[in-house]
Amino acid sequence: MLHTFSAANSYFELKVAFDRESVETGREPLLLTTAVAAGASTIETAYEIAAISQYFDFINVMSYDLHGAWEEFTGLNSPLYPSASESGDQALLNQEAAINLWLAGGAPPSKLILGIGTYGRAFQLANPAENGLRAPVRGAATAGTYTREGGFLSYYEICEKLSAGATRVFDSEHLAPYATWSDQWVGYDDAESIQYKIAFLKEKGLGGFMVWALDLDDFNGNSCNAGRYPLLKEMNRLLLGGVVPTLPPRPTPGPGEVIPEATPGGGVVPVQTTPATSGGSGGGTGGTGGTGFCANRADGYYADPLDCAMYYQCAGGATHHWTCAEGLLWNVQICDWAHNVECALRALP
């Protein structure tokens, strides 16, 4: 498999530029961060997790919008765990599965930031009498008074619905609440579900949390009877030493459910690196390339003995052949500026 470009090269260039600017100005280097998907299919196909993770200071996992009015049934915006009744792809639409996929791909837990929403995804029920999880829907719920978007309600708008008589239900498997009134339904997060999310990120050793968005919390303190920014304050309190609840046993997997598991030892997939030789012919890397290059080799990165701008990535016996961005050459374990690399091939006729 030949890849002509690796996104990791671009991130490396940015990181080098940030470090250079820090040296020139005497200031702390800028942080390189990213916001990434939580859906399993995107995680598995869109990211070179192990390669890009080394360059980012932290990685914000957008673990919300996991269900919404684009679907034909009700679902929570940001469930922590799957339900025992879920299977297949549905069983992966939760925060635990998303974080485990990033960990299994090689992201250090300390760089992963758990995304928490201060809003809810809302539906119009097909039958108001059928108002639990996975109930059939007609589409998006009525737009909120202030956010004015169908299928979307801020936390303070949800508080107003609760004050007006909406019924709140806390799901003991997903560890998140939903509320219903008339033919309307919304799944969201509140102080109770946030306690479990912070307990989860502490258990996993994650770097922290991020929210979408500050202005969707009860920022003026007029709607939820808990002061200003009640959700954000609860997150900070728990993260900075507050007592978190014990996480309950995980729901029993449903039929056909395959749950990604983080790898042992903190969840990081170890990357073994074999130094490239400057001679470019055999030596420490061995092999002559081709589809069988990674046969009998440990997972890791290897120099291409025939091209200083290319390298191999071995993963589970599969061979991936990568090319550094223009102007960069492979240097032991990263694509580096050409002037930092001794490439004997440049001296060959």
Automatic annotation (TrEMBL):
It catalyses: Random endo-hydrolysis of N-acetyl-beta-D-glucosaminide (1->4)-beta-linkages in chitin and chitodextrins. GO terms for biological process: chitin catabolic process; polysaccharide catabolic process. It comes from the Eukaryota. Residues 1-242 form the GH18 domain. One of its GO terms (cellular component) is extracellular region. The keyword Disulfide bond applies. InterPro entries: Chitin-bd_dom, Chitin-bd_dom_sf, Chitinase_II/V-like_cat, Chitinase_insertion_sf, GH, Glyco_hydro18_cat, Glycosyl_Hydrlase_18. GO terms for molecular function: chitin binding; endochitinase activity. The keyword Disulfide bond applies. Its EC number is 3.2.1.14. Residues 291-345 form the Chitin-binding type-2 domain. Keywords: Carbohydrate metabolism, Chitin degradation, Chitin-binding, Disulfide bond, Polysaccharide degradation. It is an enzyme of class 3 (hydrolase). Gene3D superfamilies: 3.10.50.10, Chitin binding domain (2.170.140.10), Glycosidases (3.20.20.80). Belongs to the glycosyl hydrolase 18 family. Chitinase class II subfamily. PANTHER family: CHITINASE, CHITINASE 12-RELATED. This is chitinase. It comes from Branchiostoma lanceolatum (Common lancelet).
